[in-house]
Amino acid sequence: MTMVMALKNVRVFFLALLFLSSSLLQVARCQVGSDVEPTEAVEEVGDLGIVGEDAQDFGDENFSPAPGVNTVCVFPKNGARVVPAGEETELLVGMKNDAGDSTLNVIAIKASIHLPFDHQLLVQNLTAQAFNNASVPASAQATFPYIFAVSKFLQAGTFDLVGTIIYEIDQNPYQSTFYNGTIEVVEAGNFLSIESVFLVTLAISLLVLLGAWIRGQIKNLSKKTKRAPKVEVGTKTTDASMDEWLQGTAYTQSLSSKSKKKK
């Protein structure tokens, strides 16, 4: 009994370890050029002062990332990164300010959708979310929400999402890419992805083929077990295949003469 309880405890321990490692892996996938552990960027800023959409025109100007600033992102309750078209999706952007003694002021978060095989082909510019009172002190970390929605007319499929956070340090603008990876866009209310439908269809086809193969094997076995039919001649039973070989011989003539005498 003690051995059984020990095995159960070991099994529970490994299951908990697998669950913890899978959660950390989902966060690590979102990390771009960062040495920060995913669990570090979880502090919430009290009043972010979100001022709405496109409060400032950021244009197409690009800035370089500030040295010592690390970013990480998490899709809460959406580890598969499935985005319903036309519906809001939330992600969290974590930042750690190791750039020196200056406070980091977050200006905005923006993102865009691209074709996965060529980032030069822009599919959609998503809403830019500006902040009025969001800062990260030196050697501190904070988490900022970003809510976006892809066009409801966007065809379901796999796309690349590029997310950027814009900030200032000592009145100098910088930006860091917190996510550059794939998302799965699905129709609103459709919980099955293209991969799921394909796998289900493939599984059903394999089951049908397996059933047909088993049925054919059973038929072949039943044919092999059948014996050759026997033909009754007089009071004796002879094999029909033997009659074909002896047809026209003296043996069959003697049998026919005996049958005539009996009559």
Structural overview:
This is Translocon-associated protein subunit alpha. It is found in: Endoplasmic reticulum membrane. With 263 residues, this protein is α+β, with helices and mostly antiparallel strands. It has a domain at 69-187: Sandwich (Immunoglobulin-like). The protein has helices at residues 2-30, 194-225, 240-246, 250-262, and strands at 50-53, 69-74, 82-84, 89-97, 104-115, 118-125, 129-131, 135-136, 141-148, 157-169, 172-186, 230-233, 236-239. Strands 1, 3, 5, 6, 7, 8, 10 and 11 form an eight-stranded mixed beta sheet that branches. Strands 2-4-9 form a three-stranded antiparallel beta sheet. The protein has a two-stranded antiparallel sheet with strand order 12-13. Strand 10 (157-169) and strand 11 form a beta hairpin. The radius of gyration is 37 Å and the shape is rod-shaped. It starts with a helix and ends with a helix. Mean pLDDT is 74; it is low at 1-47.
Please give the CATH architecture of the domain at 69-187: Sandwich
Query: What is the beta-strand fraction?
Result: 25-35%
Radius of gyration: 37 Å
Shape: rod-shaped
Instruction: Assign a percent range to the helix content.
Output: 25-40%
Q: Unreliable runs, pLDDT <50, ≥5 residues? A: 1-47
Tell me the CATH superfamily of the domain at 69-187: Immunoglobulins
